[in-house]
Amino acid sequence: MRIAVTGSTGTLGSQVVRLLAAEDTHQVVALARRPEAVATAVPTAVPTAASAVVVRYADYEDPGSLRAALAGVEVLVFVSSDGEAARMMVHHQNVVRAVVDAGVGHVVYLSGVDADVSSPFCYAFTNGWTERLLEDSGCGFSFARAGLFAEFFGAFLRPALGSGELRVPAGRGRVSLVSRADVGRCLAALAVAGPSGTHHDLTGPVALDLDAVAAVLAEVAGRPVRYTDVPPPALARELAGAGEDPWWTYAYASMFASVREDRWGVVSGEVLRLTGREPRTLGDVLRQDVA
Question: In what residue span(s) does the NmrA-like domain sit (predicted)?
């Protein structure tokens, strides 16, 4: 079986490439806009990985490159594009068209728990729209709907270590933060299974409100941390004042708007079912980060 992975030079995509290449029952095709960077992302120190990976040029903005890269591919692990949502939608449409043209039989798409075109979160719309494209494409699919990554959320937690205050506009919303490594293992597991034709919620073991998140952070750091529910405009002002890009300021604000609506509190057993391992806790991820 030939399995291709988009975003293979990124943290998550390269992990999926390494996991799949460690087995000798299939060939892995690493798709990258910069093929020369794959060697760094997927170290050749792993003999099985080095021998099992084929690298192909593929650019989300170049439909011809996507069609050529997917020639002969049976399964695609589709790691989402990045950046502004409108641009991502063009990228994703290019990928789905290439999938259809190349006759790919199964797409494992990395989506989000909040994959809903009615959500205030900009990427929830993108994910929901892409899922619909794949459903209408006629190819087999499995949707890996990940919760918010614990490592990503850490960007909002680390400043609280110095100030003792976690300032985000999350209201009483809950988050079931999932580790990036757990999501990568699930993507690899879904890739070697047949199309499920449904979505799989990939979450942490428990949903926490932000008071509970602050308590975990305080326990790991060994110092008091409290949660302050700031008004939504306050986050935008603070991010803009820190020099954040306007798009990402909007993206973060829209994400917390969806958290306030309690759209990320789902807890499922899919990580354990797919990987045979219990999902890592937020404390586990934070301890590694702090260390």
Answer: 2-237
**Of 270, 153, 171, 190, nearest in space to 19 by CA:** 190
Q: Which residues contact 23 (CB under 8 A, 6 or more apart)?
A: 48, 192
Q: Is residue 30 part of a domain?
A: yes
User: Which range of residues forms the domain containing residue 77?
Assistant: 2-147+179-203+266-279
* Residue 255 within a domain: no
- CA dihedral over 24, 30, 36, 42, signed as positive or negative: negative
> Does residue 49 carry a pLDDT above 50?
no
* Burial of 198 from C-beta contacts in 10 A (0-12 / 13-18 / 19+): exposed
Interatomic CA distance for residues 32 and 50, integer angstroms: 16
Q: What is the CATH number of the domain that holds 81?
A: 3.40.50.720
Q: In this structure, which amino acid lies at residue 275?
A: T
Place of tokens 């699919």: 141
